[in-house]
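Researcher: Go.
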Amino acid sequence: MSEHDGDETWQEPANQAEHQIGKAQNQAEYQPEHQTEAHADANAYANADINEDAPDSADSEPHSRRVRRRMSAEHIRRIKRKRRNRRILIAVVAVLLALAAFAVAFVWSVMSARSELQQAVASAKGLQSTITQADSRQLDTKVNEFSGHVDKAYKQTSSFLWTVASHVPYVGDDVSAVRTTVASLEDISSQALPQLAKVSKNVNLSNIHVENGTVSLPGLEDSQEPLSVADKVIDNSTREIKAAKRPHIHKVADALDSAQTYCVKLNSTVHTLNTVAQLLPGMLGTDSHANDAPRNYLILAQTNAEARPSGGLTGSLGVVTVQGGHLSMQPFVSDADIPKADEPVVELTAEERMLFTNKLGTDIRDVNFTPDFPRTGEIVRAMWAKQYGVQVDGVLAIDPLFLQNMLAVTGGVTMPDGSVLDGTNTAQTLLNTVYAKMTPAETDKYFADAAQAAFDHITQNSGDPKAYINALSQSVKQGHLLLWSAHEDEQDLIAESDISGRLITEGAKPQVGVYISDETQSKMDWYLHREVTTEFQKVAANGANQYTVHIKMKNLMTAKELATAPNYVTGGTDGTEPGDIRTALFLYAPANGRLVDWKFQNQNDYQGVTVHDGLTLAVGKVTLKPGEEYEITLHVQSAPNTKNALTVRQTPLIEGR
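Model: Structure:
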């Protein structure tokens, strides 16, 4: 074999190896894209085998190509995974930085909104008194301050930050509550307060007065429309704020609580003013009603020394005729002048008969056995019509505490015997002193004369108009002045005010009632001291708020007073000793709520549970010796899921005793 032949023979395997490698590479390049990983791994191993069989190109051929070793699929996946993790990490860091920036911006916005809200409430604290005093200059200042802070808070809570935050779990409810409150305050600022500014320009309290029996109310009728608009806006806003969930963040919650308290007070003030503006022109015949037919109102003068649920035993009655704003007082009559009826003058319900007996509808002295004054108005109107043939247009209940409040403004009035009733002594004189000095017949006449003289006096000269209005307002709040109208449209308006003296039968307005009625048949309730306190206890399983109601009673009569007071005052009949105070108790649970439990100091004094006008009540009877104290504890629940706080209505107290 020649040398040349040997070389050719030696190179053939190399050429074959290159051919095999090229073929394998071509197969790899033209493999379908959907080839499985198993096929790819097989090719990789095949290529590796070929490379191992082929001689080193550096030794065999200077120009031959080096074949690269392919990466495994697992190695490729690791590289891709690292790259993906790096991108995820970068994205997470970016998101966290964005969230941090958002959180900082939102917290700053929250603090700004909270600050503006607090300043708005602070600037509005004197707004109610400014409104009632109709001080247009001061009102403009207060409105501008309030509106400025509310506008700034509204801009904050209307931003994109708050919109996004409202969808975040847990804090979303807090954000929504703040936005609801601020939006409601903005409604008050932009829609209600401008209307109240109009009212302050229409009405000048210095021009509202009573003189020589004529009532002058300039500007009040012109204020009916703006007051109606403001009342509706404020009432709707207050409802929205009450319905909002309480925030988890305490500082924010406190700010919203302050705003809610402000709105509730403002709502009450404006609603009362609106009621007055809508009612008085028609009821008194002023302005456009000057040519209306005359109206007759029955004045029911009560004596709190012998308590009844809405005040006291009827002592005297009189009719005042009103036309064109002028009041004409007719002579008062004693309760003794109206004989007891054989049958109730109106049909009594079975509940009324059981709780209050037929006396509610037959005896003029007991027409206020019921704590529901509109019912008293209906009954006493029927009695007056039966006795005198006159259908009155309404009933106004007053007592010596009302007269004392008013005489403190108008000045004292001189009685026929030369004594003077004024703003310091009227209650004690009419509820205690006269009974100690006079016979029953003499006291009946004196009480009738005093009621007429004092009422006539306070309708002749109002004195300081602002003080006069404040005295009226205070008397309404204390329960010493009640009003019922026989005109349905007027009564609908009155029913929403404290002056109505009605039983609250709506579950959304939780109210507990603590009413008493004297059973001693004496004048000992002048010596009865009462306290009623309430405390929130918990939220029950059904969503109702549960409260503790604590009642304290004490007989204040001393041994010296017992020894010197006449039997007409101290009693001592029908199973009682002189100086005893025997009291019937009617303890009402809130509407659609319930009495959970009750504890009388002496459980024998508890008489049972019953129902009146859909309200559950506990009934008891307590006798107190001079100096004796007594306590009762109730637990009551409001209607489930009621937002409004519990209120208390009770038989009017004798303040200042």
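Model: Residues 1-19, 21-64 have pLDDT under 50 and may be disordered.
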